[in-house]
Automatic annotation (TrEMBL), chains A, B:
The keyword Hydrolase does not apply. The lineage of its organism: Archaea, Methanobacteriati, Methanobacteriota, Stenosarchaea group, Halobacteria. GO terms for biological process: isoprenoid biosynthetic process. It comes from the Archaea. One of its GO terms (molecular function) is prenyltransferase activity. It holds the Pfam family polyprenyl_synt. PANTHER family: GERANYLGERANYL PYROPHOSPHATE SYNTHASE. This is Polyprenyl synthetase family protein. The keyword Transferase applies. Keywords: Magnesium, Metal-binding, Transferase. CDD domains: Trans_IPPS_HT. It comes from Natrarchaeobius chitinivorans.
Length: 354, 354
C-alpha cells in the first residue's frame, strides 16, 4: 500500500489542481462555478479559497482517502485514471474538515505549521473550509465520467447520508469534551468514531462502488470495511497516546498524556472508570475534570487506566474490528492484489506506532 | 405579504420541529439519520444540534425564505401545505449561515441576545451551523412529496451550484474587508451580493420551480427575480446605514456610521471613491483604513459619500434592480394574487426604513 500511495499522489494533486487551480482566473471561475451575473473578483477568490487550500495540501498528507478510492475502483475492474476527479471528493472534504476542526478546537498547529486560522484569520479559514465541503460535491454535476442520472443521484443521496452522520459524530465528541462527568457507554464511543471518522471512510468506499455501478451488497461490504478500519484506527490512536505516555513519562522535558490533560473521554478512560474500584474510578474522574494537572497527576491517571486492563481491552477491540474489516473484504470477489492492499491497509492502521 | 408571513409562520415552525425536534430521542435519530452501528447519544445530540438551532429560531425571524417558497408553490398551482418540509430547506440553511457568519465576524449579538458561540462555545455553535448546511439537504432523500428521481437530482445539482456560489460571495466579501485599499468595481460588488445574498434567494425560487416541475425558462425567471430582489435588499441596507447615520449624527449618545467604522466597502463607498475629487477620495480611503475613528471623522466620511451623490446613485441602482425583478414576474403566468405578493415583497425590500 505504501508504494500505491507514493505512485498515485502526484496524479491526485494534479486532479485537485484541475478542480481548484493554484492560480485563479476569471476563466476558471466561469467554467467551474458558472457565469457571473456581473463580474467575479479572481484576486479575492484566490486569497479566500485557493491560497488556504493549497497551503494546507502542500504541508503534506498521504492523500490516502483518494488512493484508497482508486484501489477500490481498480478492484472493481475499472481504470483508476478515468476516475481521478472523483478521488478528489473525499480528499477535499477531509481537508475542509481539518480547517474547520482546527477552528472548533482552537488548535495552534497543523502539520507542523500554524493552523490556517492563525495565518489567514478565522473568517477566511472557516469560509475556505466550508467551501471545501461543497466544492467537491459539484464534481458529480460536472460529471467527468459521464455517469447516468441514477448513479449521480445515488452518489448525492449517499453523501448527504454520510455527511449528516459526520456532524452527529463531531457533535457528540464536542459535547462530551465540554462535559465534566464521564457518562458515555463504550457503544456510544464506538458510534462517535463510526460517525466522525468512519463516515468519511464510508464515502471513499461507497463512492467507488456507486460510480462503478456495484450491487448494493458490495457497496455495503466495502462501506463496512472502511468504517471498521476507521474505528480501529481511532482506538489505535487512543492506545498510542497512553502507551507512548507511559513509556515517555520518565524522559525529561517530553510532553506526555495529552489525552488525559485535555480530559478526553477515550474508550480506555470509559473502560477504566467502569472497571476500576470506586475510589480509583473517582480519582481518574477528578484528574480528567481538573483544568490543569501536574505530571504526577497525569501519570497517576495513566496508571489507573493501565491497572484497569484498559489498554488490553482496547487492543482486543481494535483487533476484533480489524478482523471484521478483513472478513468484509474476504467475502468479496476482489483480485488477490486488491485484497492484499486492503488487508495491508487495515493492518497498517492498527500496527503503526506513531 | 405581511399577512402571508404571519399566516404561514406557525406551520413552518412545526415542519422544522418535525425535521429537528426540540426534544431529541433515539427513535428520531434512527428514523432521520439512519440506524446506528452501535448506539447514539441522544443527550449529546440534543445539546450539539437541537438546543442551538431552536435557541436561534425562537429569537425571531420572519421565516420569509420558507414563506416566499410557499408563495411560489401556490403560484405554480400546487398546495403549499404538501411541500412544507421543502420550505424548511432554505430556512434551515439560512439560519446555519447566520451561526457560521457570526463566528467568522466574531459578532457579539444576534437578534438582541448573545451570538450562539458566546452561549454554547465556538465548537458547538460551528458544528451546529455546519450540520444545518447538510441536514436540510437530506430532506430531498427523505422525499416527502414522492418526487421522481430526475427532480431530486435536479434539486441536488441546483443546490450544489448555488451553495458553491454562496461561498464565493462570502469569500469575496471577507477578503475585501481584510484589505485596506478599495480596489473593487461596482460590478464586482453587485456580484458579491448576487452570490452571498442572492444565491439563497435563488434556492428558494428554483427549489419551488423544480419540485413543481416547471420548465427551465420559468425556473430561470423566478431565480432572477429572487436574485435581483436580494441584491436590491443589500443595497438598501447600505443606503439605510448612511442615511440613518446622517440623520442621527446630531443625537447624543446614538451610534452611527457602523459601516464606515467597520471599513466596509459598500456600493456607496466604491462610488464615492470613484467620483470624488482626488483629495476627498483619498481622505475617505484614509478614514476607512483607520483602526478607530472619532465621530467627527465618521461624519466627514459620510459627508464625502453624500457629496459624491453616492446615495442617489445607489438608490437608482436599487430601483432599477427592483424594476427588473418585477419584469421577470410580469413575464410569467402567475395569478393576480401571487403576482401582487411578489411585487409587494420586492417593494417592501427597497422601501423599508429600518
Amino acid at each position: 500500500m505504501r508504494e500505491t500511495l507514493a505512485e498515485w499522489r502526484p496524479a491526485v494533486d494534479e486532479a485537485i489542481d484541475d478542480l481548484v487551480p493554484r492560480e485563479i482566473d476569471a476563466e476558471y471561475l466561469e467554467s467551474f462555478f458558472g457565469e457571473p451575473t456581473y463580474e467575479y473578483d479572481p484576486d479575492g477568490i484566490q486569497r479566500a479559497l485557493s491560497d488556504p487550500l493549497w497551503d494546507l495540501l502542500d504541508r503534506g498528507g498521504k492523500r490516502w482517502r483518494a488512493v484508497l478510492f482508486l484501489v477500490f475502483v481498480e478492484g472493481f475492474g475499472e481504470d483508476p485514471a478515468e476516475y481521478l476527479p472523483y478521488a478528489c471528493i473525499p480528499e477535499i472534504l477531509h481537508n475542509g474538515t481539518i480547517i474547520v476542526d482546527d477552528v472548533e478546537d482552537e488548535a495552534a498547529i497543523r502539520r507542523g505549521e500554524p493552523a490556517l486560522h492563525h495565518l489567514y484569520g478565522q473568517d477566511v479559514a472557516l469560509n475556505a473550509g466550508n467551501a471545501m465541503y461543497f466544492l467537491p460535491l459539484k464534481i458529480l454535476t460536472e460529471n467527468p465520467a459521464d455517469l447516468p442520472a441514477e448513479q449521480r443521484l445515488a452518489a448525492y443521496e449517499m453523501l448527504m447520508y454520510e455527511l449528516n452522520r459526520t456532524h452527529l459524530g463531531q457533535g457528540m465528541d464536542i459535547c462530551w469534551h465540554n462535559e465534566h462527568e464521564v457518562r458515555v457507554t463504550p457503544a456510544q464511543y464506538l458510534e462517535m468514531c463510526a460517525c466522525k471518522t468512519g463516515c468519511l471512510g464510508r464515502i471513499v468506499a461507497r463512492l467507488a462502488a456507486i460510480i462503478t455501478d456495484q450491487p448494493p451488497e458490495v457497496e455495503e461490504a466495502v462501506a463496512n470495511y472502511a468504517e471498521l478500519t476507521a474505528v480501529a484506527f481511532q482506538i489505535g490512536d487512543d492506545i498510542l497516546d497512553v502507551e507512548n505516555s507511559l513509556g515517555r513519562a520518565g524522559e525529561f522535558g517530553k510532553e506526555f498524556g495529552n489525552d488525559v490533560r485535555e480530559g478526553k473521554k477515550t474508550l480506555l478512560v470509559i473502560h477504566a472508570i467502569e472497571e476500576s474500584p470506586p475510589d480509583r474510578a473517582q480519582r481518574l474522574q477528578e484528574i480528567l475534570e481538573a483544568n490543569a494537572n501536574t505530571d504526577e497527576e497525569v501519570l497517576e491517571a495513566l496508571s489507573i487506566i493501565e491497572e484497569a486492563g484498559s489498554i488490553e481491552d482496547a487492543r482486543e477491540r481494535a483487533l476484533e474490528l480489524a478482523a471484521q474489516a478483513r472478513e468484509e473484504i474476504d467475502g468479496l470477489d476482489f483480485d488477490a492484489e486488491t485484497s492484499r492492499k486492503l488487508r495491508e491497509f487495515t493492518q497498517f492502521v492498527i500496527d503503526r506506532d506513531v
